[in-house]
């Protein structure tokens, strides 16, 4: 008689946490494509120019679309402006939060910090706790019981994944976490990856964010207008669709409990607009292998190591054609993972898969 399937515990303090540590998956030695030292040094070179250019364009689009949305309020003419504003607020914020959190977008550290704080507020993430959460995500990528940022848990909740594109459920969950933090409470998972010395900072940051949201709601009530909420808060719902379309294909349908990013991450070729919104995070295998390479150097890194990587999906649509069947199969068979073939020029996968 076959053994019953393993029920995964994605919390950071449960049975699978011990399993990951015992299997040597916590803080493991990950596979990396060999890159000449000189080439890597050049790729890791930081500069302010590209990020300043992109940030000024981002702020200009935010300001211009907000002006148009307000100026044409009450007419159909405001709709395209709010569509642009929503994406600039609810989707661009994710990639800016991410790259500035790594400290690689700008060479000047305070610029990274300023944009990180702004983008964290927009994406409704505690800037203190999520900095540490993402560090863990890179240390233990898609390791059950260790990674706090697993988006496609197994078996997947297909309904929730579909609803994610509407942004409502994720917004509710994010605000609940901020409210809990603002009340002075950190979860056991948060206490696991946030150093105790940072707990007070996380609580303070949550209180600042919640105060701004409360002030925004009060302004909308006093002025009897939706405009304050259209500017702050609601764009995280109506404008997050691009963030979800690009973000959910990073790892969904691929392997967990492995130590080779070629098995658990996906690189996807995208159009220039999506790449700008996403800040080249479509080169996701490359980013996870070498997270200190700035976003603007990822295309060069890709060209340098693509001989050792699975072929990229040629489009977002093609990535979904790969990911959707895999996720649906995982709903019935949680042990399944889509395995992308390697080119003849690649070194073999690092076979350290730990099954349930």
UniProtKB/TrEMBL annotation:
Keywords, ordered alphabetically: Membrane, Transmembrane, Transmembrane helix
Annotated InterPro entries: FA_desaturase_dom, Fatty_acid_desaturase, Rhizopine-oxygenase-like
The species this protein was found in: Neotabrizicola shimadae
One Gene Ontology cellular component: membrane
Presence of keyword Lyase: no
UniProt-recorded Gene Ontology molecular function terms: oxidoreductase activity, acting on paired donors, with oxidation of a pair of donors resulting in the reduction of molecular oxygen to two molecules of water
Superkingdom classification of source: Bacteria
A UniProt-annotated Pfam family: FA_desaturase
GO biological process, one term: lipid biosynthetic process
Protein name, entry field: Fatty acid desaturase family protein
Transmembrane annotation, as ranges: 56-76, 210-234
Taxonomic placement: Bacteria, Pseudomonadati, Pseudomonadota, Alphaproteobacteria, Rhodobacterales
